Amino acid sequence: MVIIGGALAFYDQLVAVDDYSLTLTLKSQEKLIENNQQTPGLTMSYNGVEINSLYITKIQLKNTGKRALTKDFIYQPIQVSVGKSNKILQINTKNSLLIHTLNSIIFKWDLFNPNETIELLIFSTQPVILKTNQKIKEITAINFIDEIKNPPITQRFKSINIIWFLLIVFALIITIDALLLIKNDIKLGIIFKFLKSLPSLNSIKRKDFLSELSMLYQDYYNSTPFLFVKPSVLIELISDNITQSENITGYELVKAKNEGFNYTKHANLYTLRSNNIIAGPLLFIFSFFGILISLFL
After folding, report:
1. Residue 140 is part of a domain; what is its CATH number?
2. Rounded to an integer, what distance in angstroms lies between the CA atom of residue 59 and that of residue 91?
3. Is 131 contained in some domain?
4. DSSP assignments along the chain, one per residue
5. Could you tell me if 140 and 172 lie in one domain?
6. What is the pLDDT of residues 65-94, one digit of tens each?
7. Mutual orientation of helices 276-296 and 162-183 as an angle, nearest 10°?
8. pLDDT at 148
């Protein structure tokens, strides 16, 4: 029974940690004006207070627990110091219970619900350095997040150069294109075998040559996406650049072969596109690591 009671007490303690939690977040900090050189004849003031610099800082206190916190939980209000030599000139907040001294802010509430936030803007003479002091029932320490040094992932994504994402998309496109192109190498090989056989023939009828080439290329074209040369265009181009005689013989056979290669392979940028089977994944990896570096460094 003692063991069971101890286990239950330990479980209740773990649950209580999740039930009650506060998180203080430094959201942003910006220097609005500065006169560190203290230029003779130049003075600056804010709400009647003479200053040499002015900073605006946004902080947030959030109930990150599962249960509401009432004013009964406050043994000693949360006091956030902004630095001993710093001076708070003004705070902007919707929380009417929040007050401030010369260099600290005191958080109070009547009811602080889960996921509720208290946000405020601090106008001060120096950069804010946050230190907390408090006694809140069920909460031994307040979590602290510095979003200036460690921005959230969503903000980091927004700051990443869009070029990296475009390169990722481009890498995927050229890789898929190369895969689809290489997938039908067998059909392209049949065309090449036919063209390579031409110089070994004594002659071939021009009409038979164009008909056979048209049939083979039509099959290749129907199976392979993104070919630039259509079958009808292919036959027209080759027909215009070979002999107009009824039979193709001698040097004209070599010429017919070369013209066939030019338009079935080179005009479709086969060599360049097929090499993307390696270049595409390499570009993807390079771009992916570029995004990771931008996110975490």
Report:
1. 2.60.40
2. 11
3. yes
4. -HHHHHHHHHHHHHHHHHHS-EEEEEEEEEEEEE-TT--TT--EEETTEEESEEEEEEEEEEE-SSS-EEGGGEEEEEEEE--TT--EEEEEES-TT-EE-SSEEEE--SEE-TT-EEEEEEEESS----EEEEEETTBSS-EEEETTTS--HHHHHHHS-HHHHHHHHHHHHHHHHHHHHHHTHHHHHHHHHHHHTGGGSSEEEHHHHHHHHHHHHHHHHHHSTT-SS-HHHHHHHHHHHS--SSEEETHHHHHHHHHHHIIIIITTTHHHHHTHHHHHHHHHHHHHHHHHHHHH-
5. no
6. 999 999 999 999 999 999 888 999 999 998
7. 160
8. 83
Residue 155 backbone dihedrals phi, psi, to 5 degrees: -70, -40
Report how many domains make up the chain: 2
By C-alpha distance, which of 52, 134, 55 is closest to 88?
A: 55
Asked whether residue 180 carries a pLDDT value surpassing 90, the answer given is yes
Maximum alpha-carbon separation in the chain: 107
- The per-residue pLDDT for 22 is 94
Q: Which two tokens stand for residue 173?
A: 């496109």
